[in-house]
Amino acid sequence: MGFGETLDYTLIPAVLGLGVILWLRSGLLRLRPGNFARGVRQSLSRKSDSFAALMASLGATVGTANVAGAAGAVLLGGPGALFWIWICGLGGMAIKYCEAAFSVRRTCGEGEGTPMALMVRAFPKGGGMLARLYAVGGLFSALAAGAGWQSAAASEAFRGMPGRSLPPLLTGIAFALLTLPVLLGGGERLKRISVRLVPAMCFLYVLGAGAVILVHWRRLPDVLLQVFACAFRPRAAMAGGLGAAAAGMRCGTFSGEAGLGTAMLCYAASGERDPQRAGFCGLTEVLVDTLVVCTLTSLAVLTAVPEGTEGGLEAVFAAFRGTMGGFASPYLTLTVWLFALSSAFTWSWYALRFAAFLGADRVGLWLVRLAFLGAVILGSFFDTVRLNPLVSLSNALLLLPNGALLLRLSSPSSACGVDAGRNPFSKG
Fold first, then answer.
1. CB 227 within 8 A of CB 220
2. Degrees (nearest 5) of the Cα angle 385, 344, 138?
3. Which residue among 124, 133, 151, 373 sits deepest, i.e. has the most Cβ atoms within 10 Å of its Cβ?
4. Which pLDDT score is estimated for 274?
5. How far apart are CA 211 and CA 197, in angstroms?
6. What CA–CA distance (Å, rounded) separates 143 from 355?
7. CB 249, CB 54: distance < 8 Å
8. By the 8 A CB rule, do 269 and 282 touch?
């Protein structure tokens, strides 16, 4: 087991525990099913002030990691891994609900709902240092996961097209040029692009994965039975001896970025002032990202790909090619590129927000832009597998301080003095 896997599996219990605590503290368990459904439906309304924030944050989370990660999880851990993806997705829903709700409830002015500002106010002693460490970790994450990893995935997608492979340098330059509009245009341009791009790319992928499952519908009942029957069976033959639970948990825990706190940047900058509405937008992110995209990916692979196929994007390409023939490669490559670009768009804006908090002036922000473009070009020369340890490290750098923040703000006995309502779910 490599460094990245070891770190991820070490953090999984912390994320799951955080999800359980926030389910209990948030009051979500007391919601009636009808109110729950109404909250999700309202969060998807374009009339909502937080819709653009939802699309921008969703653009970062619905990335190529969902496609490659879900496929790899079910091929490594068997059909039962999908069950654990669902379990971890449920925990992520509560975490994202709290993150979005706190960022709005605590907002008293521009930028005051960001995780960095909340850390300063929630921890009178050491909060400033914690916020700076978080921002440094966020900047590292933007370069490693938001730029390098997404560019590597886009380059891999081209290599999945027979006879159409492009040199990595050209792929990296093309990807870098496509990120320039948001890198130069800032948050407003990110919102305008996200509200159009994210729904379109999700629809495109759901349509393709749905077609794969529909063509192989005869295998679907058996696959669904295996999802539950194999959920608690270890796969001894797997690399590292890890079971379905471990493989599914790793995908379900980190695919939706729940616990990283980055979504708070989007919601804090939105015009939303209703914590519950913002919270349901955060919850809907995980619902779409983990429980829809990851589920469709897993079912498409399990129904259409022979057992023994290597995981990752290769397995998804194999599933699509078995259904769509020659049209599959360009179709899926386009979808993967849209996923990678949407993630890079949002993470480029995150990078600038982190740098601004650390005191970067105009020259400093331009250096961050150049570093982001350089990471994009450099990432195209690597496989995603080689960059996974960096992504795992970046997850840890954000998860640990943000987890402490969420526990502090959600505690009914908190004395942080952020505002009179000690958590975003109280009526006050």
1. no
2. 80
3. 151
4. 75
5. 21
6. 12
7. no
8. no
- Structure-block tokens of residue 175: 């990807």
Backbone angles phi, psi at 215, to 5 degrees: -65, -35
Helical H segments across 289-417, by residue range:
295-304, 313-324, 328-357, 362-379, 384-410
Q: SS in 3 state form for 229-250?
A: HCCCCCCCCCHHHCCHHHHHHH
pTM flag (> 0.90)? no
DSSP string, 124-162: TTTHHHHHHHHHHHHHHHIIIIIIIIHHHHHHHHHHTST
Q: What is the pLDDT of residues 382-398, one digit of tens each?
A: 887 788 888 888 888 89
Tokens of 256: 């939706």
Q: Is the per-residue pLDDT at 175 higher than 80?
A: yes
Domains defined along the chain, listed by start: 3-403 (1.20.1740.10)
Report pLDDT for 242: 45
Average pLDDT, the chain: 79
**Nearest partner of 302 among 35, 24, 101, 85, judged by Cα:** 85
Residue 142's pLDDT band (cuts 50, 70, 90): very high
Q: Which two tokens stand for residue 314?
A: 């290769």
Q: How far apart are the C-alpha atoms of 43 and 279, rounded to whole Å?
A: 9
